[in-house]
Amino acid sequence: MPDYSIRRARREDIGPIVRMLADDQLGATRDDPADLEPYLLAFDEIDADPHQLLVVVVSEDEPVGTLQLTIIPGLARRGALRGQIEAVRIHADHRGSGLGAELIRWAIEESRRRGCALVQLTSDTSRTGVHRFYERLGFVPSHTGFKLKL
Amino acid sequence: MPDYSIRRARREDIGPIVRMLADDQLGATRDDPADLEPYLLAFDEIDADPHQLLVVVVSEDEPVGTLQLTIIPGLARRGALRGQIEAVRIHADHRGSGLGAELIRWAIEESRRRGCALVQLTSDTSRTGVHRFYERLGFVPSHTGFKLKL
């Protein structure tokens, strides 16, 4: 991956990240990059929390991929830490290049480096292509993910 | 639920909580209450993190139920907080009494109180009875949950 680098997200990356969140079959109805204010407030909270790591993949100084890694302490599995991956997006112009796999492998390695015993994520059941992608990376679809909107 | 109360877990609850984690079809191979040291270390980390809330249901001064609620800040859904429920257990002697539903309803209300837009959890696909339980509480099984052991 010679033309890409992965780094911690900065405040000025929030516009490009939110455009990636909104440019998505499911995110389009839920996110709106026209008003960044709520996203900047959320970014400040994420950035101040040592258990959160929001990253971007950068190509030619532009964010073209993103994910959020959350490190969750717990009692189960002998007090194991778990790494949780959320909000994975790759810019439409950079899909199919192997970039998504590199980004997930990076998150797996970062979880390992932080002492996690497990990495977990959920994916909408309608995203069947995405499921094969995670299985190829070694993930097992062992769970059902439930959501309740408040 | 007149005979039960829900409160934040304390260090002295860790023995009873780990016994509940281990007294489970899946947890039996993963958890061992004979050595509490790794669990106490994990408890200290959970207890020090303002985004984590480990609770117990107490009956006659004994913990008979537990769950962990994690509040996760994120950018998606206009910078929404989400409440994540993990490690739900009810003591074998207290199952079928409606206590589990009360505990989950409590976690939903606590997530709402903290400003979350969503509550999420995953459940092993083999626990089909548990899935009906969450659907009755209003959860939608919209996602596939992937795990990768490190």
From TrEMBL, chains A, B:
CDD domains reported for this sequence: NAT_SF (cd04301)
Domain of life: Bacteria
Pfam families xref list: Acetyltransf_1
UniProt keyword terms in alphabetical order: Acyltransferase, Transferase
SUPFAM superfamilies per the UniProt record, alphabetical: Acyl-CoA N-acyltransferases (Nat)
This protein's record includes keyword Mitochondrion: no
PROSITE patterns hit by this protein: GNAT
Family annotation (InterPro entries): Acyl_CoA_acyltransferase, Bact_Acetyltransf, GNAT_dom
Occurrences of domain N-acetyltransferase (ranges): 4-150
Name assigned to this protein: GNAT family N-acetyltransferase
Taxonomic lineage from the root: Bacteria, Bacillati, Actinomycetota, Actinomycetes, Pseudonocardiales
